[in-house]
Amino acid sequence: MPALKRSFIAAPLVVSALTLSSCASEETPDWLAWQTQADNFIKQESTSENYLGAVGQSVTPKDPVPNEGDGVQLFLSSAAALKEIKVVCFGENSILANVAISSNGAWEAAESFELACGDSPQELRLASTNAPIDAIRFNATVLDGDGTVVAATILGAS
Fold first, then answer.
1. The domain that contains 94 carries what CATH number?
2. Does a structural domain hold residue 30?
3. Alpha-carbon dihedral angle through residues 27, 31, 34, 38, given to the nearest 10 degrees
4. Is 59 inside a domain boundary?
5. Which region, left, alpha or beta, applies to residue 134 given φ > 0 means left and ψ of -120 to 50 means alpha?
6. What string of pLDDT tens digits covers the 158 residues of the chain?
7. How far is CA 55 from the centre of its chain?
8. Which CA distances in Å does 86 have to 3, 51, 97?
9. Which domain holds residue 117?
10. What's the rounded Cα separation, in Å, for the pair 151 and 90?
11. Is there a domain that residue 100 lies in?
């Protein structure tokens, strides 16, 4: 199995390519294909007039469980009302996605969502979305499978 460096990405439009090392076998997850799918998902979502940004990361079962405060962060240029967060991950995996939002510079407790990966985006419904947000923090842990690329888009209310 190839060595994989953990990639954290915060990008308003496109998630950058994964860093991979040497040889791959038929049993190895298709990291490049998944990254391309994640990039395409973000590109498609970025055409929405309510698009605020995107975050993404690659995760493997060997990655440590993130601590509170760990993860990729997206800071908004101005506070916005949160409408929805769409998450997609690829392969035959399941993940635990953790999302925390910041309002007026104060981080709220992270909310966790267990997701089965596939090709379809899933909407995360946060309990605390009433106040305008100024940042979002996202991380994921593999619960089952060989690893995945995860992408999330953040959309604001009209």
1. 2.60.120
2. yes
3. 160
4. yes
5. alpha
6. 444 344 444 444 334 333 333 344 345 789 999 999 999 999 999 999 999 999 999 999 999 999 989 999 999 999 999 999 999 999 999 999 999 999 999 999 899 999 999 989 999 999 877 789 999 999 999 999 999 999 999 999 87
7. 5
8. 29, 11, 11
9. 8-156
10. 9
11. yes
**Three-class secondary structure of residue 18 per DSSP:** coil
Which amino acid, residue 5?
K
Residue 130 included in any domain: yes
How far is residue 5 CA from its own chain's centroid? 16
CA proximity to 53, closest of 140, 146, 133: 133
Q: Say which DSSP state 6 is in.
A: -
pTM: 0.80
Token pair in block for residue 125:
């419904």
